[in-house]
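ok new one. same drill as before - structure tokens go in, u give me an amino acid for every spot. 258 of them this time. try not to just spam alanines like last time pls lmao
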């Protein structure tokens, strides 16, 4: 029943085989979607090579550099989509960053530059990419981003990223309100802690994972594949009536009081 055949999907944020974005890309491909991948370029081209080798089995028809702090690269990415596909059906936003020093210590000591950078990359980029995608979603579409419980509650060593995720979740609601009139749905998945390149910057991530395994109703944490399955569902017609929502894929941890 979950069929994405003929749908064009741009997936951002794949860094390695532990990335949640990689889990999502695999499940979208499995459901029949035509995959496009953007990667964060670097001077030596290491990321391009690494990501290209990883996603080769998905046979992406689009593979483009896109640093969301670079306006020209964003414009180039969506120009390439226009030229190659003419339309976009799915946008997967898996982008987040904060300076490591702003993820620990006293929150009141968050640097001005660190705060601005975290919100630009982790929050504003969803608004920016959604705005660029809007003209290309001529037949409706689905936008899915990733959030975390730290945007709703205090989580040790999450600090400024919690503010970024709170802003991201509110952005989901405003975007859903704006884009709904053209049948574009916008949702977020709040995944449980998973050991990824990004989460490794959060102090005590392994302790967090072990805590979830002990406390969550399912007595485990979740996998990239499970998050990918949820994303594929949100991008499919099975979720045609769902927008502006935060879907918790965390083995039930969010419902627990203690």
């Amino acid at each position: 029943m979950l069929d994405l055949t003929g749908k064009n999907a741009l997936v951002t944020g794949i860094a390695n085989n532990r990335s949640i974005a990689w889990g999502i890309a695999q499940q979208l491909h499995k459901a029949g979607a035509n995959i496009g991948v953007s990667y964060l370029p670097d001077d030596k081209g290491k990321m391009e090579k690494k990501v290209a080798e990883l996603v080769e089995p998905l046979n992406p028809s689009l593979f483009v550099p896109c640093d969301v702090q670079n306006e020209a690269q964003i414009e180039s990415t969506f120009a390439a989509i226009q030229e190659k596909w003419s339309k976009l059906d799915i946008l997967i936003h898996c982008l987040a960053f904060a300076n490591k020093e702003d993820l620990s210590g006293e929150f009141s000591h968050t640097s001005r530059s660190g705060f601005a950078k975290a919100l630009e990359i982790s929050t504003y980029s969803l608004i920016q990419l959604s705005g660029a995608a809007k003209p290309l979603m001529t037949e409706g579409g689905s936008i899915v981003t990733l959030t975390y419980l730290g945007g709703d509650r205090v989580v040790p060593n999450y600090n400024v990223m919690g503010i970024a995720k709170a802003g991201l979740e509110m952005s989901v609601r405003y975007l859903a309100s704006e884009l709904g009139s053209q049948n574009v749905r916008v949702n977020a998945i709040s995944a449980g802690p998973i050991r990824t390149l990004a989460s490794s910057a959060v102090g005590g991530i392994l302790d967090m994972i072990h805590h979830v395994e002990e406390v969550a109703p399912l007595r485990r944490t979740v996998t990239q594949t499970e998050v990918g399955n949820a994303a594929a569902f949100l991008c499919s017609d099975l979720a045609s009536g769902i927008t502006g929502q935060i879907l918790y894929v965390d083995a039930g941890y969010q419902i627990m009081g203690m």
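The beta strands are 8-11, 34-39, 62-65, 90-93, 141-147, 184-191, 246-249. and btw Residues 8-251 form a domain with the Rossmann fold fold (CATH 3.40.50.720).
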